[in-house]
Amino acid sequence: MSKVVRVAVTGAAGRVSSSLIVRLASGEVFGPETKVILQLLEVPASVNPAALKNLEGAMYELQDCGFSTLKDVVITDDPNVAFNGCNYALLVGAAPRGPGEQRSDLIRKNGAIFVGQGQAIAKNAASDVRILVVGNPCNTNCLIAYSNGRDVPADRWHAMTRLDHNRAVSALAIKAGVTNDAVTCVTIWGNHSNTQYPDFTNAKIGGRPATEVITDRAWLENTFVPNTQERGKFIIDTTKVSSSFSAANGAIDHVKSLVTGTPAGDWTSAAIVSKGEYGVPAGLVFGYPCTTSGDGNWNVVEGLKLDAFGEAKFKKTLDELLKEQEVVKDLLPS
Ligand code: NAI
């Protein structure tokens, strides 16, 4: 009998999820022998009449793809239904930043969503559930969700820095004139925001230190780092909308790594609940270099060194996450 995996996706009618759900259904992530049940959550019609209707349309289109791996599609506005028995919960749905709103306003606005969803996951999900928060500000949303869903072990809760990781790999590859697969050991430290530190000092290109292949240190510090930090804004400035299929691809890559493992001699980037690694206060959701054997668990790569430039960037992104934690502290049950 084939295995069945239940995947809950929130914000399922949105732009990121529209790319995500097709790839989850296709067999690409869980393999041809595993059947997928998609449990798709949107806001009630009273909040947005179009959302559930669009989701219904997405369900019909998924059926029309005829994937041999898609067993069922559930569409709902009830988190208890969406997270029922789910093995993966991909939390994409979040309110966008409104005109004149500050990042701290957005954190508070979205915080309430992740209180309820954290509780609903703890109440309904399968005992092996893994959660990936994509909706922004994803590190702090993840912190809120896991703090309100403590029956699920802390190491199951992740926030997405894989898109940033992929962006950094691609930027280094383009500069070095190589293909992406030659670039390894890249890390996105810290927050998925413009304070993240895309670490080139430990990265490799063709197995050699990236700094030996790209000897223009000024480019690395003054172009590569800020461009990676601001890549999301650059996409918005170019297209007037935020990244969609590349974000979905980041989420797919994150889950795929958990299912199939990271390659020997390489690692990837994921934001996870810190156990104090690299001096980060335990409990903060912080982007680290991570490996996995494909057993669904991330292991932080220990012992990497940062130079003075990296240390300053690391501190800046850590400070930002500590400030975000302060903004939502009333949403974090102890
Ligand atoms: P979108 O606005 O197209 O879709 C968001 C969807 O979420 C909407 O359909 C909305 O109705 C739904 N939603 C809102 N509150 C909900 C709730 N409580 N429960 C269920 N659904 C809810 O936005 P898009 O472009 O799909 O982006 C989604 C999120 O992903 C945004 O927060 C965005 O900032 C974030 N993002 C994160 C990235 C990362 O690298 N971590 C990269 C790109 C986007």
UniProtKB/TrEMBL annotation:
InterPro entries: L-lactate/malate_DH (IPR001557), Lactate/malate_DH_C (IPR022383), Lactate/malate_DH_N (IPR001236), Lactate_DH/Glyco_Ohase_4_C (IPR015955), Malate_DH_AS (IPR001252), Malate_DH_type2 (IPR010945), NAD(P)-bd_dom_sf (IPR036291)
Binding site for substrate: R97, R103, N136, R167
Active site per database record: H192
EC numbers: 1.1.1.37
Residues of the Lactate/malate dehydrogenase N-terminal domain: 5-149
Keyword NAD: yes
Keyword Thylakoid listed: no
Sequence positions that bind NAD(+): G11, A12, A13, G14, R15, V16, S17, N110, Q117, V134, G135, N136
Domain Lactate/malate dehydrogenase C-terminal: 161-329
Catalytic reaction annotation: (S)-malate + NAD(+) = oxaloacetate + NADH + H(+)
GO MF entry, a single one: L-malate dehydrogenase (NAD+) activity
Keywords: NAD, Oxidoreductase, Tricarboxylic acid cycle
Role summary: Catalyzes the reversible oxidation of malate to oxaloacetate.
Annotated family: Belongs to the LDH/MDH superfamily. MDH type 2 family.
Protein name: Malate dehydrogenase
Organism: Gemmata algarum
